[in-house]
Design goal:
By secondary structure, the chain is of the alpha/beta class. It contains eleven helices and eight strands. 50% of the residues are buried. The protein binds adenosine-5'-diphosphate and magnesium ion. The site of magnesium ion (MG) has 5 residues, from α1.
């Protein structure tokens, strides 16, 4: 059974997709067989990995539109060894489709997925819709990237409410893998203060060493490469390598 990690925050622009693509690439480079599933119809995971998706190619969103659809049909290889992608449908309208919260969990439990992957990363939309609920219902862990400014606290409180609801109903095994500061700049006083406040409110042990602000991460995305291939020595690459090294032993823990 692969370990499943949802990367979520109720706010947009907190680095979810950047974390999903680069953490997936780092974990794949460490030897895990990784499947990245893009549930955000912006479809940025494919762009970030330089994968071209044909107009009528199957996508992860087909699951929510067609009861017969299979996730395996949507999976394509990426330029990185060990890393596969189930891309998003850019035409999918969030809020549309079947409401079944277990649809993704069921699709991921199919033998073709369970035998082929060690880890599944789910990139999620910020909206509180059935796609986010599907991701949180399917996941063993949730990783929460946040930008350490004042408005993030409210977004995180909102996400925590959703998490506790899911934990007490459809997915009691869901755990918080960590709260991950992104685009962080140590010398900005507000970033430090917000990070201290996040630690106080949500527990210091949950706060991971962050991903610093690094324009190279945005550039890498623009050319469709993970940072580890685009600029392996830059700050962003160092931070993602450290994040993967921190999480890999936790993710190896058997969860079933
Ligand atoms: N650590 C970082 N340093 C600099 N820019 C970043 C960093 N993380 C993300 N970005 C940029 O911020 C923007 C939003 O990031 P993205 O990953 O798309 O967020 P989300 O998926 O949460 O909407 C993108 O332009 C991305 O390139
Ligand atoms: Mg995104």
């Amino acid at each position: 059974m692969p370990r499943i990690i949802a990367i979520s925050n109720r706010k947009g622009g907190t680095g979810k997709t950047t974390v999903a693509v680069n953490l997936a690439a780092e974990l794949a480079a460490l030897g895990a067989r990784v499947l990245l599933v893009d549930l955000d119809s912006q479809g940025h995971c494919a762009a970030g990995l330089g994968v071209k998706i044909g107009q009528d190619a199957p996508t992860a969103h087909d699951l929510f539109l067609d009861p017969e659809a299979s996730l395996t049909a949507a999976i394509c290889q990426t330029g990185c060894a060990n890393l596969a992608l189930a891309p998003a449908d850019q035409r999918f309208e969030h809020g549309s489709g079947a409401r079944d919260e277990r649809r993704l969990a069921q699709a991921l439990a199919r033998e073709k997925i369970t035998s082929a992957y060690d880890l599944v990363l789910l990139d999620t939309p910020p909206s509180l819709d059935h796609l986010l609920l599907n991701a949180l219902t399917a996941a063993h862990w949730v990783l929460v990237p946040y930008v350490p400014h004042q408005l993030s606290l409210e977004g995180m409180r909102q996400l925590m409410r959703v998490l506790f609801k899911v934990m007490s109903s459809s997915n009691p095994q869901l755990k918080i893998l960590g709260l991950l500061p992104t685009m962080a700049t140590d010398h900005i006083r507000q970033h430090r203060l917000v990070s201290e406040e996040v630690a106080r409110q949500f527990g210091a042990s949950r706060v991971l060493a962050g991903i610093r602000n690094d324009i190279r991460l945005a550039e890498a995305f623009g050319v469709g490469k993970p940072i580890r291939s685009y600029a392996p020595k830059c700050r962003g690459a160092q931070d993602f390598a450290r994040l993967a090294a921190t999480l890999a032993p936790i993710l190896d823990t058997p969860v079933t």
